[in-house]
Request: fold
Amino acid sequence: MSTETITAKNIRALEALVCERGFGWTLPRKAEFRHDPAPIGIEWLDARLGGGLPRGAISEVTGLCSSGRTGVVLSALARLTQAGGIAAYVDATDCLDPRSAEQAGVLLDRLLWVRCGAEGNSRRDGGRPRLSPTDEAWQTANLVVSAGGFGMVAVDLGGFSRRQLADLQGRTWARLRHAVEDTPAVLVVLAERRLTGSAADVVLELHRERTEWNGLLGGIGMRAEIFRRRMRGAHRADTERAA
Reply:
């Protein structure tokens, strides 16, 4: 390998390997700049996440339909766009309701909404057949994330079948992680179940609690399990439950 092809990430990986094998010591490095997390806007959830969703990393928000996953992400997008940030929403199955997004406080003129499965997307590239839904979602997510400039990118994979999710589970999510690493961007993946494996720093699994009635509708509760896979500065996974 020539010196021209060695990157800062290669150096960090080699330093870690040297230390792990006990072969010697490397020069100390300056502490990397840490971006503050991006608040979701749900007080109890932000508190348990240490302030919100981590920047420069992948966060997964998982849960079944009506578990609250879209609402959580819309809340985070609302906070970011109202603060002057620009966001992107990769809508793999064209399920986002813009009226609901507006009602949640999202400023649509500061949101790039990519409708992958929208009716009428009939473009062909060089006469080739249209991509499969999973390929279209995957390539679009890579394109948007790699473009940079967004404070938050949400990749909504809700509505995909188990087979389609299994296909996405096998993708190289580390590529997207590297694209946002050391940037102030938040990358959020929404799906019914976990897909990104060890590439995610945080996995937030949502569960809809039983609706309670006391003569009148008392409300719908939401329970969250927070799986902290790779929190910066931590050396072990941690699981936390919040109600």
The radius of gyration is 20 Å. Residues 215-219, 233-243 have pLDDT under 50 and may be disordered. The beta strands are 57-62, 87-91, 111-115, 152-156, 186-191, 200-208, 212-214, 216-219, 222-228, 238-242. Residues 90 and 155 are 5 Å apart (CA to CA).
